Structure formats: C-alpha cells, structure tokens
Amino acid sequence: xxxxxxxxxxxxxxxxxxxxxxxxxxxxxxxxxxxxxxxxxxxxxxxxxxxxxxxxxxxxxxxxxxxxxxxxxxxxxxxxxxxxxxxxxxxxxxxxxxxxxxxxxxxxxxxxxxxxxxxxxxxxxxxxxxxxxxxxxxxxxxxxxxxxxxxxxxxxxxxxxxxxxxxxxxxxxxxxxxxxxxxxxxxxxxxxxxxxxxxxxxxxxxxxxxxxxxxxxxxxxxxxxxxxxxxxxxxxxxxxxxxxxxxxxxxxxxxxxxxxxxxxxxxxxxxxxxxxxxxxxxxxxxxxxxxxxxxxxxxxxxxxxxxxxxxxxxxxxxxxxxxxxxxxxxxxxxxxxxxxxxxxxxxxxxxxxxxxxxxxxxxxxxxxxxxxxxxxxxxxxxxxxxxxxxxxxxxxxxxxxxxxxxxxxxxxxxxxxxxxxxxxxxxxxxxxxxxxxxxxxxxxxxxxxxxxxxxxxxxxxxxxxxxxxxxxxxxxxxxxxxxxxxxxxxxxxxxxxxxx
Length: 500
Ligand code: NDP
Hints:
Layout: H1 48-58, E1 70-80, E2 98-107, E3 122-130, E4 133-140, H2 153-160, H3 171-180, H4 185-192, E5 206-207, E6 212-215, E7 221-230, H5 239-248, H6 252-262, E8 268-277, E9 303-312, H7 317-322, E10 335-336, H8 341-358, H9 439-448, H10 451-462, H11 472-483, H12 485-499
Antiparallel strand pairs: 1-2, 1-9, 2-3, 3-4, 5-7, 6-7, 6-10, 7-8, 8-9
Helix pairs in contact: 2-3, 3-11, 4-9, 10-12, 11-12
C-alpha cells in the first residue's frame, strides 16, 4: 500500500494568494529570510515573524498517551436498529436514534511511531456525542484483560514497555509478569492466537470488556457487556506477514482504514449486548465483574442493538484524533458502572492522564467538546476557550438563576450495587464456582481454536522465548501446561528442539 498522491488528497497546485501571518494574524515579511543587521549581522529578536514561527515549532509535540499512543481515528454514526428500551433509558439507545461518533483504534504498548502490525491487543474507543452529554466506551478488541485490579496496571504496562537501561522491549519482562500474575492466562492465550494480530482495524471486533450497568425507565438494573461485531468478519495476519509489514509499512492499519473510508467502503460493526438480570450476578459460575473472564454466550446470548458506521476521515489528525480524550468516566443517564475493579480504577486514571496530556480544559478541544450544553461552575485554567454569559454566576448556590443539579436527568449515582459489608477489604470477591485463572483460557485454546490455529499459537509463543531466562522460562511452560497440557508440552519440546 502506498500513500495517496497529494492531488488525490484534495491538494491543488495554485498561485499563493494568501499572505502568511503570525499566529496573531499579522502578515509577515518573508517566509525565507530572517532579518539581519547588515549582510552578516546578528539576527534580531524583534523579527516577530521568525520568533513566533520557531517558538510555536518548539512546542509542536504534546505528551503522547502513556498507553495506546499509536492509533487512527475516524468519524461516523451509530444507529439504533432494535428496541432495547426494556433495559436502558439512555436516550441515544432508544429505537431509531442516530448519534455522531468518533472512533479511535490503537496499539497498546508501542510509541506514537511504532508499527501497526505487532502482536498486542488493539484499543477500540468510541465517543458518542449524545444529546445528554458525551458517552465514551473505551474498550479493546478483546472481551478480557490481563489483570483484574487497577493496582497492578502500572506494573503490567512497565513489563510491556521498555527496559530502564537499554530502552529495549523485552519478552523476558513480559513473561515474568504474566507467569507471576496468572490471571493473565486468558488474555495471553487470546493474544497468541490468530486474533492477536488483526488483518485490519476494520476486521476486528470491539468490546466494552468491562461489565456495565443499564438502568431502564422503571429503575430496574441489568449487568451488560458490549460486543461490536465487525460486519466484515474477523481477519488475522500470520506472524511472518505481520513482521514483514512492520518493516515495509508501519502504518499499515492506519492507512487501510483511511483508504477504505475514502473509497466509500465504510466499515461497519453491529452492536450486540450480553444482558444479565441484576440478581443473577452472585449465582453466576464466574465473577461477572472480573475482566479476565467472559460470560458464556450460551448463557447470555448476544442481543442486537444497532449499527456503527465510520464514514469520515479526520481533516486534521493532531487536532481531531491526537487531542481526542476518551474516558470510561463519561457516562449518560441509563448507564452505570459495575464493581469491576479495573473499570473503577480507569474511571479515575483516564481523565487524570488527559488533564496531564492536554491540560485542565481538555474537554473544550474540538473532538472532546460535547454537542450537549455545558452548564457548570468550572472556569478559568490554561487555554480556556468557552465561557458563560457574564450574567451567569461562578458559584453555587446563587440567587441569579445559575444551573442546579438535577438527579432525574443525570446518571444518578453512576451505578449502584450491594457492597457486601462495610469493613475495608483487600482480596478477591466472594467466590464463584469457576473463578480460577485457567479454565476459560483452556476452553479458548482447546474448544474454540482449530488445530491449525493451535499450531500457530504454539509457534507464536515459541518465537518469543529466545531471550527468556530461567526460572522464568520453566514457568512459561508450566503456565501453558495449566492452560492446556498438550500445548504446554509442545511449546517446551519445540523450543528445546529449536536450540539443537
Ligand atoms: P461460544 O462458542 O459461544 O463463542 C466463542 C467465541 O469465540 C465467539 O465469539 C468467537 O467469535 C470467538 N473466537 C473464535 N476464534 C477466536 C480466537 N481465535 N480468539 C478469540 N476468540 C475467538 O463460546 P462461549 O461464549 O461459551 O466462550 C467460549 C470461549 O470463547 C471463552 O472462554 C472465550 O475465551 C472465548 N470468547 C468468548 C466470548 C464471550 O464473550 N463469551 C467472546 C469471544 C471469545 P466469532 O463469533 O466472531 O467467531
């Protein structure tokens, strides 16, 4: 795949009729020469056009995302095609409703310039610009995750990133973490299967991964999981092809997405939900709020809701995608959180990292600005752009008709559930019969994957073990034997054979 030519991207050769200006709008004297005192003299700080240009350039980069730094975004629409009003009163989920959406797909561990086709989960983040405020679903292309408690998140990410001394990525670190934090087994088994490297962003599913709450007009609550099923079917890249593409076209997935949309091949996904009545959670065979577990689709079949279509590429990547800030804390009435400890950690961490990356007024940037009115008492701060009429007070309570909170219109308590006791508690939640770390990974490897996919899984894992040392190496084989004995034994044999 090559870049489109400039003319295909809408650029036209022409005479330059527009005068270049400073960022304050003043026309400048020259694009080519800074001003000097005489032909070899010093350049002057009073050359405002020069200083303005260099100073802005010095500040072009913003901190990249700590995770999910490399990504691609596109705009589109979500249309509700079914009636799920029995489960949620969220306005944007009512029959026939259409809502503008921004989607961003990403790779987790690599930096902003890293290759698209590495083995890694993919971010699947959606911002719904609803009439009741922005609603973000910040999910992945997998329904599960490596850990179940946010307290481990920084450690997990450090193990996936780079060594402190040489700044190299390191499989030894990754396997060390995974084999010690064995709740990773399900996600790791997924990662080394075919879906660990999607063929394109268009051919992968998206999941909320976390359980959320839906609340209907009567106040009845349901636990739900979102599945955005690609209408193209899931596709994958074999490891050798992914490695080749990482060299010849590190932007492969981004380019594919933009080219498809430009060609009018709009990618679409069907949203399907798993819906669990509130009182079934305690009795379910696994803890339904543990993000390392799936709810079997045989127990909770997928219920169709609507269609997501992406039909517009960004006009400016930095403004509309790099500055997009997604957060699972963005909820609307009719949706609530669940007692998933990863989710509750992310509800804090996402807006926190956006404040660091983009500043305290990041919600005023174009991709984050809600279509709904913002009425509150936040004001000032760096780069403030929006402001209320001077007749609106900056404090509450007030006597001047300023906005007042309205519980009826809000997500209320942002989800409500039984805390099971008042004492401080650290540990796994109350037990469910199948709450172990390996059973679902086993089902995936033995029952869902085909024989050929299992062969590729073994080879994908063995290919990462060259730099792994004892005792971690033995732990890797034991970990895989706990997932599936035959697969673990085969990995050990194939690895040892490869050393002969
Ligand atoms: P089902 O037989 O109802 O579903 C199997 C699921 O596995 C389908 O969604 C299928 O997606 C997906 N799948 C197929 N190949 C792969 C692969 N290589 N990697 C990951 N997923 C794949 O079974 P259950 O719901 O009872 O779940 C059985 C196992 O399937 C689970 O342990 C879990 O590992 C995996 N799974 C479960 C999901 C869930 O939410 N219940 C979702 C995805 C996977 P498709 O229909 O697109 O082929």
